[in-house]
Amino acid sequence: MAFSPALSRLIDAFRVLPGVGAKSAQRMAFHVLQREREGGAHLADTLKRALDTIRHCKECRMFAERELCDICADERRDAIRVCIVESPADVMAIEQHTDFRGRYFVLMGRLSPIDGVGPEELGLSILRERMAGRVEEIILAVGATVEGEATAQYIAELAHQYRVSVTRIAHGVPVGGELEYVDAGTLSQAFSGRRPL
Amino acid sequence: MAFSPALSRLIDAFRVLPGVGAKSAQRMAFHVLQREREGGAHLADTLKRALDTIRHCKECRMFAERELCDICADERRDAIRVCIVESPADVMAIEQHTDFRGRYFVLMGRLSPIDGVGPEELGLSILRERMAGRVEEIILAVGATVEGEATAQYIAELAHQYRVSVTRIAHGVPVGGELEYVDAGTLSQAFSGRRPL
Fold it and tell me: What residue numbers bound the domain in which A126 lies?
């Protein structure tokens, strides 16, 4: 005795989502079939349409429905400064919380040879072309993880080749953070990155 | 600046799934668009097809693609014993781990007036019809939660009206469980449910 074929297939299909194992997939399938038929149908349609229409911006690799994303298409944005981030969510965060008005380049990941993610997967050939063009400053806003560091290092070297200046956003004690709860790595970064007042 | 319309809609649509909030929905959308386009398209198709074809068995409310589920359609299964469970997953568990060969009735929930789940939502009118027919024993295999208890109580009273005998599966110390780690409620249930050897 097993679930009906269509139900088994549905449970399997949900497992493609990140963080969804056998139990959650089953729970999702039951939930949709039982309580959210309309929401489920809407999800199926929206997902299909999104896969059909959403591509990567050809300049910055951000998700976009046209050739250029809204930021790259905006002539008023400063084209000489490019901020490098790992994911589209990072672009949103920077747009919301800073007054940066340059352009972006979204890596859609970070260097991780063990997972088969090399420079090509991160679209660095597109970034090279941009560095060969108008770009004057690269601002690295990648995460302070091992892979993030490696990625930053790699891009910094590229930038040096193209004689583009490179900066990296500051890592240190979070604003509002208590010193005693800050981890050792962050605290040592905060010390080595101290600035005169 | 916000995500493109199709992407925002996709993120919203994922929130229909249980346990998926704003952050996970965004993660799912990015993952599908970036790494799992095929899997995502498959999910959209499978979900649409499942919603079109999967209905409830008219006898036991289990998910089924035909009028009757495989168990209700199987003439060899004992029709006088009906096991009442809360969800389709419970049917699977009982089928896999016990030698029960009767029929089932799937409540698809439990009584919870505060959430608007009353006897009608649990399909108890169908259960009444079955009790008025051939059923001789009702086995309650609902959870040992507050709502589960209320549901069990309600169905037991129904069964008494129809002069159908009712049993409830035993609650007690799990097999392999250490007494000292068992919670108070389970331990007291285990004592009051003790049996002569």
Answer: 77-168
The residue of A9, A12, A46, A47 whose CB has the most chain B CBs within 10 angstroms, and thus the best one to mutate to test that interface, is: A47
Helices A5-14 and A22-35, axial angle in degrees (round to 10): 120
Q: Tell me the one-letter amino acid at B145.
A: T
Distance from CA of A18 to the nearest CA of B (A): 6
- For residue range A65-124, list pLDDT tens digits in order: 999 999 999 999 999 999 999 999 899 888 888 889 999 999 999 999 888 889 999 999
Alpha carbon distance A159, A78 (integer Å): 18
Q: Is residue B151 part of a domain?
A: yes
To the nearest whole Å, the CA of B141 is away from the closest chain A CA by 18
Counting the structural domains of chain B, the total is: 2
- Residue in B with minimal Cα distance to A61: B34
Global pTM value: 0.78
Higher confidence at residue A12 or residue A143? A12
Residues A81 and A164 reside in one and the same domain: yes
Min Cα distance A66 → chain B (Å) is 10
pLDDT at A1 over 70: no
